[in-house]
Amino acid sequence: MKKLNMFTYFDFDEFAKGKRFTSIGKQPWKDYDSGKIKGVKVEAIIAQDKTNYGDQEGEIINNIYEKLTFKVPMDIDVPMNVEIRPVNAIATVYGEYRNQLSITAENIEVISK
Fold first, then answer.
1. What's this model's pTM, rounded to 2 decimal places?
2. pLDDT tens-place string over residues 30-73
3. Cβ contacts of residue 10 below 8 Å, gap of 6+?
4. CA atoms within 13 A on the CB side of 86
5. Ramachandran angles phi, psi of 16, nearest 5°
6. Percent of the chain with pLDDT over 70
7. 19: closest CA among 54, 52, 59, 55?
8. In terms of Cα–Cα distance, which of 103, 86, 113, 111 is closest to 29?
9. In sequence order, which residues have a C-beta less than 8 Å from that of residue 61 and are 6 or more positions away?
10. 50-74 CB burial, b ≥16 within 10 A, e <16
């Protein structure tokens, strides 16, 4: 079957509940084919994760310190090592094992320095 990804919905707002994101870098977001700059990619880590993933047999499951990249379609300045929040983020799950996220946001809000 083709194009099944069109019917997979990922609720980023629900995923982000109980999480804090910290910026760790920034780089240009370029179009793969043309090389044209589309905006910036803000790299972040999950600095706090209070999400209940349904721990199994004493195993603690969380995504703390996992790296995320937020693609923003404008040039913004985000300092290193500050708490950030993506504005109107839309995420898509991809990858062979469906364990990767592609996240696009309208903007990045700096929460604290």
1. 0.90
2. 999 999 999 999 999 999 999 988 877 878 888 999 999 999 99
3. 91, 92, 93, 101
4. 30
5. -75, -15
6. 99
7. 52
8. 103
9. 53, 54, 55
10. ebeeeeeeeeeebeeeeebbbbbee
